[in-house]
Amino acid sequence: MSNNYLPKVSIVTPSYNQAEFLEETILSVLNQTYPNIEYIIVDGGSTDGSVEIIKKYEDRLAWWVSEPDNGQSDAINKGFMHATGDIYNWINSDDLLCPGAVEMAVHFLEKLKDSCQMVFGDRLIIDQNSNIIDIYEAPSFSMKFPPMLTKLPQESAFFTAELWKKVNGLDVSLHYVMDTDLWYRFLKHTFFFHIPVFMGKYRKHDDSKSVFGMGSSQNLNKRALEEFKFLQDHYGNFLTRSNRTKKIMRLVSQLRLVYQKNKRERRLLKEEALNAFYRGFPQKINQQCCSSFKRLRQT
């Protein structure tokens, strides 16, 4: 990294009643080795002690607020409205940045700045106590295979402020697949570069808002339905007209069955059904997706 110019990195943390994890998230940002970071926290009016934690570090924050908002997408957009950096990232209040992640991201964005405006790394999966329980090595992406965008580790993604402003940030009407929608819109303007290094830690716990960490069948169904609409709107043209609804609805049906199964089967359904669906979609959807669902039903 050149000492002549250090791009400013703006990092936003949206938070609401996550005091249990918030301080660890804050420290994962403040303890980064990269020297030019602007850190912003947008709290949705927490009542669990989160505000006291934020105040503990407010002298190291560029800006923070605690007030009601319209959800995570709105909070992130609000945070970046106050950002003045060249590069953006957001880290949720239960996730973590790995040491050196920011420096790594800036290095590659600067190196590739003439052709690439977004980089992302791999993910460590941690439990409620921050123990590593799994790893996730992200795939590469292209416009020819956009459905794999749903598998991009959000916490490890860094992108230029120019790119964010070009697409007008997150769609505030989305609450479960807003990151996937953002990646899709980004991909219309730039290619993504995968850094094969663990850059983020995703926490799996009962209240996680991911399809792989849903705390209730109601939340899972909301995610499934929102993802169904997203797939219809953006990827539906890849499927034949006769198969489109049928194939996507099979995914939704399987997701709705998740909480009728025991713990082991829940994990199998959530991970294998979605992985098989996206891995085979669209080129091999009939062969791989249908055989996967058949196998799951026989489990």
UniProtKB/TrEMBL annotation:
InterPro entries: Glyco_trans_2-like, Glycosyltransf_2, Nucleotide-diphossugar_trans
GO molecular function: transferase activity
Glycosyltransferase 2-like domain boundaries: 10-130
Name used for this protein in its record: Glycosyltransferase involved in cell wall bisynthesis
Protein keywords: Transferase
Domain of life: Bacteria
